[in-house]
Design a protein that fits this description.
Layout (H helix, E strand, L loop, with lengths): L1 H38 L8 E3 L2 E2 L5 H15 L3 E6 L2 E6 L6 E2 L2 H11 L3 H11 L4 E3 L3 E2 L3 H11 L7 E5 L11 E5 L4 E4 L1 H14 L8 E4 L5 H13 L5 E5 L2 E5 L1 H5 L14 H15 L7 E5 L4 E6 L4 E4 L1 H14 L3 E3 L2 E4 L15 E9 L5 H14 L3 E2 L4 E3 H5 L10 E6 L2 E6 L3 H15 L3 E3 L30 E3 L6 E8 L2 E8 L4 E5 L3 E6 L5 E9 L3 E5 L4 E12 L2 E12 L5 E7 L1
Parallel strand pairs: 1-6, 12-17, 30-34
Antiparallel strand pairs: 1-2, 3-4, 5-7, 8-9, 10-11, 12-13, 14-15, 16-18, 19-27, 20-26, 21-25, 22-23, 24-25, 26-27, 28-32, 29-32, 31-34, 32-33
Helix pairs in contact: 9-10, 11-13
């Protein structure tokens, strides 16, 4: 306790004796600080640099003038860059170099526009830690750099694989697999040279070695060596691709055209090139499945093929590509090509075991007065349905069998009902065949799945027959379909004799008896008056009929089918025909 009192007395004595000096020192420090604040109020703090230019204690205007003077002087310089290819000059006088002074103002504002305590802190820091300002510099060296790039850039060289067929010492040509090694290239590093130029403008120093970037080849020596090994494995015994009795050889020369020499991956074959090669093989293998077309000979009671059935074949190119790659990797010498086989529904050899024994029903129609193109279309359609076999339980589709009816599929233009008018269009006359087939199906006692009557009564279908026994088709929406509900296959035969079309259905009879009543015609309506329309495309005085008149009527008939005493079909068919007017085009062209 005594010691503590003694220490306090000493401190009190010191303060009493030196109080004046302490007060005077504090006042002096305060005055110096205030004076420094006043002096530095419009000046940069110590140790402030732009590049290598010291702007300490300068006002903003003074600093800007000093920096601008130095910058302008440096922009008149020609910088020399050296490389193994030579010496190259960058002329800064033509670079449109410009320095952005925004950062000078920002730095000054950030250091001066602060509270007093922050000012003092920054002022003390500025005495020990330099502030380096890096303003943005813009310049345009595109043309100069492009000129230098043209002079120094060097493209990389891909490795090459080739056959050297130079004769050996005995004078015999020998195809030796040779490699030309790859080499790296280089290009001017424009970003780096721009950095060096800006460095000079700020610090008046730069690296004079011309900056270049290495570029690598797409095809490296390493990958070509791998391909060379694959080729050498085929020199004595090439790779053989087989399918049935056929074969295709991939020898060293063929493989060289298929190799992938760019990716450097484990995959050896170039996919695009190999698929082109496989497409050529596929063109020799692939074929669509063909269903046989047949005809029944009433004399021999046997069926003959006039178009034999054949299997379909399709090369699996994805799998073949994979197998060839694996064979090359594993040094295999034989690849069985993967080919999928599609068997026809009915083999030609089996045709006479399908139960086609007798005529089940016949359809007949006449087409006298038809134009040449209509007669042609009737025959073409008959050839497409003739010889078709319908398995038991399956439904026959007229549209699916005939396909699209256009000029591209062989049909010619003739008159058809379209858009409420009779007009020339591809396939006119096809309905003659669907109508005749409908009649054959009715007579055979087979169930009809889809049938549509024509919009109006067509004269061709009433030559020797009453109305209502027609069926129109319009691909793909309006179809005629029937079902084979017999125990065996049904064979269709369609043919023309003179101006008559026949469609015969052959199969196995099952004792069905068909009864079709005579059609009943009601509500007959006369056709509207003839319509004459001016046509400026026809010569004056020419009259051309483009539509024909027809009476409207409602037509119905009944059909019953009895099998072994049981009625299996009892139906009424109705057709509603519109009255139709004749239309004539009258030419007005002078």
């Amino acid at each position: 306790m005594a010691k503590s009192k003694k220490t306090s007395s000493a401190i009190a004595y010191f303060l009493k004796k030196n109080l004046l000096s302490i007060i005077l020192s504090a006042v002096l420090f305060f005055l110096i600080a205030i004076t420094y604040q006043v002096i530095m109020a419009d000046k940069y703090y110590p140790l402030t640099f732009i590049g290598n230019i010291n702007i300490s204690f300068f006002t903003q205007g003074e600093a800007a003038r000093i920096v601008q003077a130095n910058f302008q002087q440096r922009t008149q310089t020609k910088l020399t860059f050296n490389s193994p290819q030579g010496t190259y000059i960058i002329d800064l006088a033509t670079s449109s170099a410009n320095l952005d002074y925004t950062k000078l103002s920002e730095t000054f504002s950030n250091s001066h526009d602060r509270p007093l305590q922050n000012h003092i802190k920054l002022e003390i820091q500025s005495l020990f830690f330099p502030v380096k300002i890096t303003p943005k510099i813009t310049l345009n060296l595109d043309k100069q750099l492009e000129t230098i790039a043209l002079a120094v850039n060097k493209q990389p060289q891909d490795a090459k694989l080739f056959f050297d067929e130079t004769p050996n010492e005995e004078g015999t040509p020998s195809a030796r697999i040779q490699i030309k090694n790859s080499t790296n290239g280089f290009v001017l590093d424009k970003d780096k040279i721009l950095y060096e130029v800006k460095d000079y403008l700020l610090f008046e120093q730069y690296q004079s070695l011309l900056p270049l970037k290495t570029t690598h080849p797409k095809i490296t020596t390493e990958h070509v060596l791998k391909a060379k090994k694959a080729l050498e494995k085929l020199e004595d015994k090439p790779l053989k691709l087989t399918f049935q009795a056929r074969s295709w050889i991939i020898d060293t020369k063929q493989l060289l055209t298929l190799l992938d020499l760019q990716t450097g991956q484990d995959l050896l074959l170039d996919k695009e090139k190999t698929y082109l090669y496989l497409e050529k093989i596929a063109s020799e293998i692939d074929q669509p499945v063909k269903e046989g077309l047949f005809e029944f000979n009433p004399t021999t009671q046997r069926v003959n093929a006039f178009q034999p059935s054949s299997e379909g074949r399709k090369l699996n190119q994805d799998k073949a590509f994979q197998l060839i790659n694996e064979a090359l990797s594993n040094n295999q010498k034989l690849v069985a090509l993967p080919v999928s086989i599609t068997k026809p529904k009915i083999e030609t050899a089996d045709i006479n075991s399908l139960g086609i024994k007798k005529l089940l029903g016949r359809g007949i129609s006449n087409f006298a007065g038809s134009i040449t193109n209509r007669i042609y279309n009737i025959g073409l359609t008959a050839s497409k349905i003739s010889g078709v076999l319908i398995p038991p339980g399956q439904t026959f589709s007229f549209n699916q069998t005939i396909g699209d009816i256009t000029a591209a599929t062989g049909f010619k233009q003739a008159y058809v009902i379209k858009g409420g008018r009779t007009v020339l269009d591809d396939g006119g006359g096809v309905c003659q065949d669907s109508t005749t087939l409908f009649r054959a199906v009715l007579n055979a006692g087979l169930p009809v799945v889809k049938r549509t009557a024509h919009a109006y009564r067509v004269g061709y279908y009433e030559q020797g027959f009453p109305p209502g026994l027609d069926a129109t088709v319009f691909y793909p929406s309006v179809d005629f379909q029937f079902n084979n509900d017999t125990p065996a296959h049904i064979l269709i035969q369609a043919y023309t004799v003179g101006n008559t079309l026949y469609v015969d259905l052959y199969g196995t009879g099952d004792n069905r008896i068909v009864n079709i009543t005579e059609p009943v015609i009601t509500n007959q309506t006369p056709p509207p008056p003839d319509l004459r329309q001016d046509d400026p495309t026809l010569p004056k005085g020419t009259v051309k009929q483009v539509d024909w008149s027809a009476w409207g009527a409602n037509v119905s008939f009944k059909r019953t089918v009895v099998r072994n005493g049981e009625t299996i079909i009892n139906e009424t068919w109705k057709s509603f025909f519109k009255p139709w007017q004749a239309v004539y085009l009258v030419g007005t062209k002078d």
